[in-house]
């Protein structure tokens, strides 16, 4: 039996259990609940029922393999948060998913009842539960979707959480490199990639990010020069080097479709120009985008149509 909650209130490296304040509530509850069920436990050092419930919630969160996270809030130190949540007594527990509260209860419940409540919420919300491999795959998929939606901060948080639990997870490490690339931080991405353990770099997850970084470094020389290359093309539409440079300038500016269009136009006009340079550059684009990217799929079809027409 715990004589106080001082031990459970101490910071812990376990990513499933966090001590939360007003300053960290957004990241540790609202953002975290986009990929897991987050239980917010309002407790106090003087609360006897808390001494049974809080350790139980910690145990269940750790056993969930990432499906459930516990955010512990000391009401005495975080009264504004408790007031905002309408906490009238402790312990009070709120469940958050997708950035909003979905359920809650007050008082110390038996373990079986708490576990049933959590299982029901996992089923209702669609949060990942049970199978560790499935949970990991879902988290990686969600992180990738956040990158595509330009929510880099959330994607980075997911990748970081996964690496906290599994430091040798190659897709998550590669994902962090991708986040830096998407932010336009080529030097930071290169530094992080070069610091990766050699064993991790053998994983195929690094192939697209390596290609994307190389493209970013290549295209960086053309940043802000699109107008210059467009003027050259207006004067001479057969200036394939200007069109190639324009494609790189578009890529550097994040205009992927325009970049692909210019390279396809070179292939259409002069298929063998610069030793098949435009087609080879397109292949680099496809590697960077990923084989399942919609733009890769559509561009491959267009390239095949040109090549075999």
List the helices and strands and how they pair.
Blueprint: H1 6-9, E1 17-19, H2 25-31, E2 37-43, H3 50-63, E3 68-74, H4 79-84, E4 92-97, E5 100-106, H5 111-125, H6 132-148, H7 152-165, H8 170-182, H9 186-194, H10 198-201, H11 206-219, H12 226-235, H13 240-252, H14 256-269, H15 273-289, H16 294-307
Helix pairs in contact: 6-7, 6-8, 7-8, 8-9, 8-11, 9-11, 11-13, 11-15, 12-13, 13-14, 14-15, 14-16, 15-16
What is this structure, in a nutshell?
With 309 residues, the chain is of the alpha/beta class. It has 16 helices and five strands.
Which keywords apply here?
single chain, disordered N terminus, 309 residues, 16 helices, 5 strands, Serine Threonine Protein Phosphatase 5, Tetratricopeptide repeat, five-stranded mixed β-sheet
Question: Could you walk me through the main structural features you see in this protein, from its secondary elements to its overall organization?
Answer:
With 309 residues, this protein is of the alpha/beta class. The protein has 3 domains: 6-125, 3-Layer(aba) Sandwich (Glutaredoxin), CATH 3.40.30; 132-203, Serine Threonine Protein Phosphatase 5, Tetratricopeptide repeat (Alpha Horseshoe), CATH 1.25.40; 221-307, Serine Threonine Protein Phosphatase 5, Tetratricopeptide repeat (Alpha Horseshoe). The chain contains 16 helices and 5 strands. Strands 1-3-2-4-5 form a 5-stranded mixed beta sheet, sandwiched between helices. α15 packs antiparallel against α16.
CATH fold-level name of the largest domain: Glutaredoxin
Query: SS-based structural class?
Result: alpha/beta
Supply the CATH architecture of the largest domain: 3-Layer(aba) Sandwich
Distance between the termini: 78 Å
Unreliable stretches, pLDDT < 50, 5 or more residues? 1-12
Given the structure, what is the number of helices? Answer: 16
Shape: elongated
Please state the average pLDDT score: 86
CATH H-level superfamily of the largest domain: Glutaredoxin
Helical amount: 55-70%
Question: What is the number of E strands?
Answer: 5
Instruction: Work out the radius of gyration.
Output: 25 Å
For the biggest β-sheet, the strand order reads 1-3-2-4-5
Q: Class of the largest domain, according to the CATH hierarchy?
A: Alpha Beta
Content of β-strand: 5-15%
Largest sheet: 5 strands, mixed
Order of helices and strands: HEHEHEHEEHHHHHHHHHHHH
Please indicate the count of domains: 3
